[in-house]
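FW: tagging you since you asked about this chain on Friday. Here's the raw sequence from the shared folder, copied in full. Didn't touch anything.
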Amino acid sequence: MMTPVIDLFASALQFRPDGDVRVAERRMTSSDSGAWQIATFHVETDAEVHADHWEMHPEAEEAVCCLTGGVRLYFRPTTPGGAEDMVRLSAGTAVIVPRGRWHRLELNAPSDLMSITLRHGTRLERRTRTH
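HL: got it, structure written out here
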């Protein structure tokens, strides 16, 4: 039997606790599957990376990988009135976002990105001027 080829820009891979790997719909919100998700995206605008929202994964760290192009990853200040910390990612680089740390992306150029995380409990919050 021939193993099907998976389009990583159309689907996600879920690595399940029982050791199975499944093809699934890409989800940016919380999932109750208990599976780690690997999702790959081609993005051309800040809107496609929800630059106007903070994201947080309470149950796991996240690897944000820049495959092509370039992005800026911002961490929300941990103290009121503090400055956002920023990390620049270029093609072939990644950063590990700590568990429970609010973060967001902005593009430097059209990019191919990969996200690896446990989506369970993921939260999105609209960015305001104060955070």
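FW: The chain has no helices and nine strands.
HL: agreed, and The chain has a mean pLDDT of 91.
FW: great, closing this out.
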